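Hi F.,

I've been meaning to write this up properly since the lab meeting, where we talked about keeping a consistent format for the predictions we share between groups. The idea is simple: the sequence comes first, exactly as it goes in, then the structure tokens exactly as they come out, then a line or two of notes. No screenshots and no reformatting. I'm using this chain as the first example so we have something concrete to point to.
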Amino acid sequence: MSGRDSEGETAPARLIRIDDPADPRIAEFVSIRERDLTGRDHRFIAEGTVVLNALANAGASGRFVLEKLFLLESRVAGLSELLARLDPAIPAYVADRRVMDAVVGFAMHRGVLALGRHAPAPDADTFLAGLPQAALVVAAVGLSNHDNMGSIFRNAGVFGADGVLIDETSCDPLYRKAIRVSVGAALRVPFCRGGSATQMLEALEARGFELVGLSPRGEVAIEDHAPGRRVALIAGAEGPGLPDAVLERVRRVRIGQAPGLDSLNVATATGIALWQVALKMKRLS
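Output, unedited:
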């Protein structure tokens, strides 16, 4: 079934016109602000052109599958090159603004949505076994804020981290907002999610990683820390920080700051620490 683009020209055959917000073919995109597909058969919603490009490119790794698109008709022309690169079997549903807004539940200004599926990640030990001998990773403990999770993935991508480990109490990096804040880095930086903080740290130690915990109570300043060949930066939740049980088994490092505030935002702190460690590990150009 073909549709027509915003200028009335015949659109490619892969484009499928949607005129009814209740059409079951786009059911996954209904009311995305109130609910999210995370946790449902490993499916998730990706939003925006940059994130869609990241999802399309991530498919080559075998970690992600792009299942369908839902596009605002006025965005089709600008996506022509990307659509041409995709498997023609992937359906691309197109609607006008009235229909799209009725489906998603708010004014969808970006007008670009995709349904993706994440291949189940391996356990932490298997995940770590696949990393290079000289490796830098971030390990998240108890992160519940999707903005912080997305920002940490963006930092990890910018500063060349090899992966992110996420304990079972942390939020999912494939939540729609986390992916958007990460600017698609959650689809590019490999990650492993699950298990307790203790299990995660044990897996890291078994694979020869130095455990570096970010804390205002750190014994050494981050700029004075000399990283080895394998480093895991451990970040805790906003406010409480890392649990005492975690702090007792890691090398605590601090980021200098002016007096007056308790601590940095966890995403900001992780970015500073990643930059310092990656610079000393000669991972930056």
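Notes:
Residues 1-13 have pLDDT under 50 and may be disordered.
The chain has nine helices and twelve strands.

If this format works for you, I'll send the rest the same way.

G.
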